[in-house]
Each structure stands twice: as structure tokens, then as C-alpha cells.
Specification:
The chain contains four helices and eleven strands; from the N terminus they run αβββββαβββααβββ.
């Protein structure tokens, strides 16, 4: 009887995992030399609109920070991040996202910052048909200021938590919420992909780009 219950529980867990991935947006990482590809597969049963971060943030347990890319990069032994290659967005939806972003900046009195973003700032809007796959390309950057010191660590890619941002009190949360609530016709908005695997990169001082 106990063995039967264990088998039944195992079947339920396996079935649940398959169901979870059956009706979701799935993300898989692909690393190729100095490039990283985010491969998204749409298993939701509908055409979808979703967002991807324009920069991929990497962190390591040796540095108490979510990311080594920011305004204090000189404080970190190694700076590891990836910037999206340009013009991979869905043009019409990107225009709507950018318009909402600029309108919101004007509302809160920050219109002076419009157009002043770095290449890795913000988000890109993508459209993906049902059962289709799309690959988004990023250029990996690994920096260290001289003098180069011996350093080694395992860096983990930290995917932007859209689900938390949309629900929480984050600076960019409001304009992203406004975009997510637009009428996309037959398509639907999906906030967070199911990550099939985590991306870890082993880095030493020999991997530094100048």
C-alpha cells in the first residue's frame, strides 16, 4: 500500500511538471563564445507578447550583489554582464512600450531623462506565435580594470523578475504594468518564462575583455 502511494505521488509530480511546461513560455540558455542566446518557446496555446531585459545581470556568491554591472563597477574584481544586440524587438509593440515609458517619466517630472538611456537599460517587447521559437542574442562582456589580479568565480545569470516587478513597488513597475494591461488583440501578455536551466559561467582573469 505504501509503495503504491509513493508511486502515485511520483506520477502526480511528473504529471504536474509536464502540465506546467505544456502551457507556459519556456526559456533555455545557449552560450556560444562571447554571445549568449535566450531561446524562448511558446507553449501557451496562444500568440503572446512578452518582455526581455536589455541587459543580463550576473552575480556570484563571492560578491554580495545581485549584479556586477552598475554605477560602482570599479568596486568589483570582475564585471560580468551581457547587452542585447540591437533591433530584435517587435517594432509596433516596442513603440507602445517606449511611449508609455516616456509618458510616465513626464508624469513624475523626469522628462529630462528621456532618450538618455544606456544600451543595456530598459526592456524589449517581443511577439511570439503559438508553438514557435525565438532566439534573442546578447553580447557577453567581462571587464577588469588594471592591474589584473588573479580571480576566479562561478557567475550565475540572474533573469529579471518581471512577475515581482509587476506586482511590487519598483521604480519601473508602473510603466511595465501599464504596458501589460494593453489590449493586444488575440495575443496575450506573459510576464515570466519558465526557466528550463540556469546559466553558470566559470570566469578567471584570463577571460577578461578590454
Amino acid at each position: 500500500m505504501i509503495k503504491y502511494i509513493y508511486r502515485l505521488i511520483g506520477f502526480v509530480l511528473l504529471f504536474s511538471c509536464k502540465e506546467q511546461h505544456k502551457n507556459t513560455l519556456n526559456l533555455k540558455y545557449i552560450k556560444n563564445s562571447k554571445n549568449i542566446y535566450l531561446q524562448f518557446k511558446n507553449n501557451t496555446g496562444k500568440d503572446i507578447i512578452f518582455l526581455v531585459p536589455n541587459s543580463l545581470e550576473f552575480g556570484t556568491k563571492n560578491i554580495k550583489s545581485y549584479s556586477t554591472r552598475g554605477s560602482r563597477e570599479e568596486d568589483y574584481p570582475l564585471n560580468v554582464y551581457a547587452i542585447i544586440e540591437p533591433r530584435q524587438f517587435s517594432e509596433s509593440f516596442q513603440k507602445k512600450l517606449d511611449s508609455i515609458h516616456n509618458t510616465y517619466l513626464t508624469e513624475i517630472g523626469n522628462s529630462a531623462f528621456i532618450g538618455d538611456e544606456r544600451p543595456g537599460d530598459g526592456n524589449s517587447a517581443l511577439y511570439l506565435k503559438n508553438n514557435n521559437i525565438i532566439k534573442v542574442k546578447y553580447k557577453l562582456t567581462i571587464k577588469q580594470s588594471p592591474p589584473i589580479e588573479k580571480y576566479s568565480s562561478k557567475f550565475k545569470q540572474n533573469y529579471y523578475p518581471y512577475d515581482k516587478v509587476l506586482k511590487g513597488n519598483y521604480p519601473e513597475g508602473e510603466y511595465l504594468r501599464r504596458f501589460s494591461k494593453l489590449n493586444f488583440g488575440k495575443a496575450k501578455f506573459v510576464a515570466q518564462p519558465v526557466i528550463e536551466d540556469s546559466l553558470f559561467i566559470n570566469i578567471t582573469e584570463n577571460d577578461v575583455n578590454y
